[in-house]
Amino acid sequence: MVQSAINGKLKAIVGEAYVSDAAEEIFIYSRDQGVQDPHNPDVVVLPGSTEEVKGIIQLAAAEKIPVVPMGGGLVLSGLTVPLKGGIVLDMKRMNHVIEVNEHSHYAVVEAGTSQGMLDAHLKKHHPGLKHSLPDAPPAATIAGNIAIHGSGHLSQSEGGFHSEMVTGLEVVLGTGEVVKLGSCSTVPGWFSRAPLPDLVGLFLGWNGTTGVITKIGLKLFPRPKFHDVLVYMTEDIDLAPVVLNRVIATSMAEDINYALAPKPDYLRGFQMIVINFTANTEDELNFKRKNIRAVMKDLYATKESGFMPVPPNMKAGFLEAPQKALSKFADVRKGGGFEYVGAIMPIEQIPAACRAGMEITSRHSITYSLGARIIGRGHAVMFFFAYPFNRVDLDEVERVKKALEDTNESVLKLGGIPWKTEVQGQRLILDQMDPATRSLIQRIRGVLDPAGIMNPGNWEVA
Amino acid sequence: MPELQFDPDLCAACTSIDCIMKCQYLSLDLARAREERMRIIQGEMSSVLEDCVTCYACEEYCPHGNHPFYHIVEQQERLGVHPVPIPIEKSQVVMMAPRGRMQEMDLKSPLINMCFFSIMKSTIRGALFEGATTIEGSDIFCNLMFLHFARNSTIKERLPLMIDNIMRFALKPSGVQDVICYHDECYGTYTSWARAFGIEVPFRPVHLFDYLYHRLAALKDRIRPLGVKVAYQRPCSNRLCPETDHYVDDIFTLIGADRPKRTYDYGNALCCGGVAEAAQRFELVDDIRAKNVADMKAAGVQYCVFNCPFCFWTLAEPVAKAGIFPIMMSDLCHLSLGE
Fold first, then answer.
1. Residue A306 Cα to chain centre, angstroms
2. How close does chain B come to A348, measured CA to CA in Å?
């Protein structure tokens, strides 16, 4: 079928206003803010319902047209760049908060609901509850973030990656079938994935290659009234895991982040461990503060490290969720370029990761910000090697690209796994993966997406 | 490098040892104080060097004007005592370093030196500061805070440059001679520390409270007496210029504020706790803040007034939680003028 005919059918499904192949739209949807090469989609479609998504996928499957689901488009590593053209399925119209269950602490949202929308909804209508916010701009979507195993300000204390906070999904498979997963498949409530066979994982971490998420059940958590932050400072890279583990062991911290950056000058060479904690009463807050300080006493007594006094203007920034520091850093080189290797890795590898990041950036003459968020009370960290660049400076873009490749390799050597990585990084992972696992992944894709239309190019062996 | 004018013989001959005996944070009897004093004079390690909270108060307590605190800081630095964790100290040294960005300025009197606190410039307004111009930032920063870090060397290195910057870029091009010090840390630097180290100050430093008092006197007809009780959080740096403390009472008289009798005021004032917090002495911080705020409450005050922005940042929250309104002195004066 010719493109104009396909576009006509798409317009019949979603309405004329929500289909576009205008040059400016094609340009915007061909790229993200990272260094991956752009690829033009043939058409951009904005569905308004699960039924419309189903219709689009059925059409695409019949015509063998690639489909790339897209949330906020903020992933930075090109996962929503249509590598083989076709349809970019922009989910932003599906942005309704369908349900909030105050008793069972979960929300059901449509896949285009942004982090900011849910946060605002909860603050307005359910002020006692919150969800875990990633340090992404508020336009990042809930679905996009859970689909890439994102993490956020409650990942330390409340169960780990955001994908682990999913209580149920509604998805449209590559065949066009609509499937419900979790308790919502059997009873009305979206409260749990257990005790059923857990199929939710078939759509988390797959970069949209198995289907389109249309609805999500997401865990919510109490929003305590009191909030404070402590910042621990050291020059000793090898001390970081010690400090982090001691704080984790107190079970007092809601969020724990580690940072090392050459800017501003007064922080060059110093590592900061930012410890956020919350409480329902002031007494509880003081109790937590004392406990966290107490476990560090023998360390700060040496005067080689210690808690940094945090003036109110700086404290306000540390108390924010999402944290804006990395977003601000993203523009440090100006010119609108920023990408990072996120790496899911063991906590004890933080020092080695820092050293690798500094060596790589020095070798490629680029600047950096390194850091980590503790996941699930320390079973892993999301370590980031963030490299800003000036998009106009093509030489710098190339150097960043090479640095990202080197960083991916380095992460795997260190025993970590690159997170939401671009296609080249996915291939590195697949090369190192157990062959039986790799084979199973390909077979599962074949079952869920027999026409091979779902975000092709991703999770494929070259 | 400038040398401290400290007389060891005078110190050794002192019988009262007020520097130690009056200290609110050390608990030594006279015999032990004599021993520790001698250790310090002889350049040996002393528990005083390690336990000092760097509140500056012994500069005021010394009946001989012999600069015991500056001497303690000298000895701390020589012996490698770090009151504050080393990474924090190093980071502060870089953060507050001069940037070399000064350019000739055309300024007018009254010229207010905001120290490093450009964030407080919003207080420079209204009739009190009519026509005022300001200088601020790391190129004119007194650096006296490094007393808290046992780093007289940093002050010695930077202060001459700061004075030169103020003269060359601010005062000479403008024909201004008086520098009104918003923070009495600067005033203390120029009138006490610089003299103690033999550094010449070629301009006239004016304490903010001196300026406020005279400005309020000139605006007397506009003052609407506040009729409130106010606690004064006397900062460590005022220990370097105790002769200015009377301005608090003078200003209060003019604006109709009462400074009720408190345990922790005047010579017995307690530190805000900010420096002790940086020194990781958290139990001490909790103790002195609790005592200080309880003392304010017992005195029945409605306001707690500050000169030092750092004290304000440190103590404003606990004070406010106790139902007392924290306020900078300049803002309290604005209130009295209905501004």
1. 31
2. 22
